[in-house]
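Q: I have two molecules that I believe assemble together. Could you output structure tokens for the complex as a whole instead of separate predictions?
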Amino acid sequence: MLLTGKNIIDNNFSSLGEETFRAYDPQTREYITPEYFEATTEEINKALGKASEDFEYFAGTSHFQRAELLESIADEIQKLGEILIERAMQETALSENRLQSEKSRTIKQLKLFATVLYETTWLDIRIDANDEGLDIISRKDIRQLHIPIGPVAVFTSGNFPLAFSVAGGDVASALAAGCPIIVKAHPSHPGTSELLAKAVLNALNKCNLPSGIFSMLHGASHKVGQELVKHPLLKAAAFTGSFAGGKALFDLAMQRKEPIPFYAEMGSINPVFFLPGAIHKNQDKIATDYVASFNLSVGQFCTNPGISFLFDNDDAISFINKICSQTQAAPSGAMLSTQIENHLKQQLEKVEKVTSCVLLAQGDAPDNYIAPALYKINADEFLNNELFHEEFFGPVSFLVMLSNEEELFRCINALKGQLTAAIQMEEEDQPLAKTVIEKLKFKVGRLIINNFPTGVEVCHAMHHGGPFPASTNPLFTSVGSASIKRFLRPLCYQNFPQALLPEELQNDNSHHIWRLVNGNFTQKSIKNEF
Amino acid sequence: MLLTGKNIIDNNFSSLGEETFRAYDPQTREYITPEYFEATTEEINKALGKASEDFEYFAGTSHFQRAELLESIADEIQKLGEILIERAMQETALSENRLQSEKSRTIKQLKLFATVLYETTWLDIRIDANDEGLDIISRKDIRQLHIPIGPVAVFTSGNFPLAFSVAGGDVASALAAGCPIIVKAHPSHPGTSELLAKAVLNALNKCNLPSGIFSMLHGASHKVGQELVKHPLLKAAAFTGSFAGGKALFDLAMQRKEPIPFYAEMGSINPVFFLPGAIHKNQDKIATDYVASFNLSVGQFCTNPGISFLFDNDDAISFINKICSQTQAAPSGAMLSTQIENHLKQQLEKVEKVTSCVLLAQGDAPDNYIAPALYKINADEFLNNELFHEEFFGPVSFLVMLSNEEELFRCINALKGQLTAAIQMEEEDQPLAKTVIEKLKFKVGRLIINNFPTGVEVCHAMHHGGPFPASTNPLFTSVGSASIKRFLRPLCYQNFPQALLPEELQNDNSHHIWRLVNGNFTQKSIKNEF
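A: Yes, here they are, computed for all two components at once.
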């Protein structure tokens, strides 16, 4: 499959601009063909214009049509075969195994949203029918469901070239909701993005859906993303990436004449708490899993356990020995991009200047690879130095040594908002664990016991988000079926004749969908005999 | 009951500041005692500090305890008796009937949230248990519910001194969620606010709940509200009022180091569409209801039908005659404040300069009262003059005359985001109504047929909100049981032993609460036999 390097707008390949860039192979340190064309203002306008034009049609498609589209995209990605994995490996230096499993996850996500569309709990149907004679009742006939919000921009992530990319979770959830998409492709893997975009286009064409529903724009500079977020026809945006990037775009979205929801997932330091009983009883497995977790895919996960807390006692000595030797033996790797590598190196230079911070262990790494590194600090350093509250995006973790529980609680209070927090515990740790959980729950989106945070399950109950700065809106998840809620808004129908109501709100409920009727969940029809 | 004029913080009456202001009687045009003390920075810090201190405790109370609190507040308001209505009449010039019905609504709202707490659908419980053997399943045990977001500021409205005030819908929903409240009392009815705050305090004390859960701050200047929104311990805010006020505070909330959700409901022009069949068959009733709706409580509703659309045909002539005579006969009244009155007068001065705008009818009004007014413009004027897209907060409505359906559709496309749109129709209008509905649904939060928009039912299915500028977040309602969602966020538990899970997430479900288990709604327990 030939890569064109062009933007995809309205089913056409478009290259109106003069600025171009190329992808970069982090392993060979060479640029890769073809040239990719930065989208121009004219192209951005066209993509938004078409998305807006086709929105009403797409919003009116049945849930079955949208489910078919998602399944068709999954099929087309499957059909791409090895070329997708090869190009992604070249552009990201991620391993074949990792990318194969990411591809499976991408397909699973698309299919999950198809099943979500076949049922309808996400519509959050509420009916206060004035004929049911219940206690809390409206004097008028009021019915509500959710409708798509409008054209959505998706800023794809650098570290998940498939699962948080052109056909990733944000796109799947927004398409499921009925929103046209404008993808801003990540400049570090434009070829992978083009392959995926063609799969989406093929699916759209097979499903006879209008071409304005999906566009993909390229841009290595910030300009394309900024113009996209400021465009008056855009109604919401989703972003996965760094705090600096997410916050800058969030600010632009809020400063618009019409502010729009901007859902940014910006990573965090994901604290891990090693409770004494666990370190006493189970330190071998914990040491292995911890070091594996912070080194997975060269540590390039937003859920990377970047900081951990350990009580300074006899068990700690042998545990530290174990995590040190595991770290020394852990594999090194090339990072996703030189930009990411340079940022990490700058952070580590600052770390070296902190006198109380000790490098406990470091792995080996050939040229161009980054070695795993484990550092030790004390609680005071964590409490007083902003540096250790920053995300280190890479195979690095800091161990904070604690003298007592009071220090632990002070450290928890000092935490910023986090995606996750994990507790390693045994039965005898329960009293302390309970206190720790009560304090942590107001700081994080996901609490974990005896797992590590990497590996975000795609399911109904997952929450991938958390209080700022982990995300810009702690009420919403970017992973799992609940992520569709980001792109839907309530619409209320008052005093409508049956014939003008959407099918899901009519008295007859022959599809047996779940509805909150006068405050009670039911799959029954509403009696129509008054 | 003696009014103190003081701020209420931590169960104490506090007056540290030197700035004071008094309420104003819009009927007599005189200031009313006592002096009210503007909250100082120290007082704001104290209120937030206490709220933050008591948050963990309040979040941990049972739903039954919170339901009891809401019911107790309702009882205490009931007990206030006539003094509440008398003071509110004096401060707002609203009629006794209107205020009595608003009091009932306030009590109904509190009790609605108590019933919401007795069931638990608002927790949005999701469980992906790895022992259920279903198809889309998590490899890990993942469970989710919603928790309170933290201390919430409530900016009360000027036009609803009871129902959107100190113990109104925002406060009821945030307390139900488990969030401590800091109320910024509206400076036009501080006495009414103090009476209500005492009712809340009494209820808190009777329920043995800590005093940091509720504070009320006074301020006639913008300073108190601004400091409140910028305070780092605040986690969310709700506002009902003008676009200028809401948008200014929204901007501050977004510019914080940690941006927080700011839910502002800012009113709109609530278009009404008179379809030909309805005007042919039912013009008497429609004329009466329309004029009554835009004049209700001197037109001071965010759902006031400020603009209406009518096809220029033979039926229109008699209809216009009817609405003119109704308008002339409609009662006048004193407005809530001189500020509101002056703003309306300034807008009407601008209207008088628009040459194509015709004053169709005006009622009589004694000194200090505002007379109902009905104006006529053509579609071009509506399409090209920003003035007619502004909310006129008062007894004023504009009739837009349409030559044809194409003009109607252009006018719909030109509408900004609205709280509501209403259609007056008969059976024969259905084809046109269908098209109008399809276009309107992307512009509004609530669609209404053959009712007028004033009168927002407090129920489960109500959506009171809409696309910007009607509100700052179209995903949430400020009226009805769904408004609790604004103050809750998801929290996910991964791989937790049963003993450490919140009761609602444990396998055993002996309270039969609704849960989404592996994607299916059920009230059953989870089998625990693997």
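A: One point stands out. Chain A touches chain B through 86 residues (CB under 8 Å).
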